[in-house]
Amino acid sequence: MTAAGRPDRDASQRDGLSIGAVLAQLRGDFPDVTISKIRFLEAEGLVQPGRTPSGYRQFAPADVERLRFVLSAQRDHYLPLKVIKEQLDAADQGAAPSAVGPKPPRKLVSLEAPGENGGLPSPGDFETDRELRLTEEDLLRQAGIDAATLAELRQYGLVRPGVAGFFDPDAVLVAKTVKAMTEFGIEPRHLRAFRAAADREVGLLEQIVTPVYRHRDEDAQARGDEVVRELAALTVALHTLLVKAGIRAVTGG
What we know:
One of its GO terms (molecular function) is DNA-binding transcription factor activity. Residues 94-127 are annotated as: Disordered. The protein folds into two domains: 19-93, Multidrug-efflux Transporter Regulator, Chain: A, Domain 2 (Orthogonal Bundle), CATH 1.10.1660.10; 123-251, Multidrug-efflux Transporter Regulator, Chain: A, Domain 2 (Orthogonal Bundle). It has helices spanning 9-12, 19-27, 35-43, 61-77, 81-92, 136-143, 147-155, 169-182, 192-213, 220-251, and strands at residues 50-51, 57-58. It contains ten helices and two strands; from the N terminus they run αααββααααααα. A two-stranded antiparallel ribbon has the order 1-2. It has 253 residues and is mainly alpha-helical. A hairpin with a 5-residue loop joins strand 1 and strand 2. It starts with 8 loop residues before the first helix and ends with a helix.
């Protein structure tokens, strides 16, 4: 108790970290994480912090490690929460986790760094800062392409500047990916179907996530973000499986 007879919150949190302290620790590696996001992950059973007699959350170091693993698995591997939870549960029970995605170590720390695959974007690289604005010169330099290639990317809708004429970081990742594909003889004009398919998927997913974002409670944004991540992960997985199945059918493999 304080001198004024009020409960000493610092004393009640002495054996664990408050949610605000956890947020401060995570923000350096995960700038987009919020208190609502942490609460959402708790509600989904990914982390189970203790509680003080007054009801305040107490996060142990192991809880913070679990949160880091979850956030890394989403960012770097685009895994759905269901898969991440299965891996965590398997690790908790001492069983061998699934071979899909990252393997949770006994001490859950960071996973492989994004961009290790020769500088090409991995799914986690798509967690970018939407506020960062790039000029055309910035895009050309960072993506390692020339103006003619950029003109083709714009012509076929693969890269689109914003209303102010600036590009976002995703445009760099798209340009790098297309550049890598050109080494296999694929040209930007061949990728128009990818743009059309992506636009159709956006229209479908928008119908699902918009109602979630419109809820008025404080966790609506976090829930909406999670729905987007889950659907994006499932979309990537489905696309990959369909392409693999199609190639097997063609090659007889």
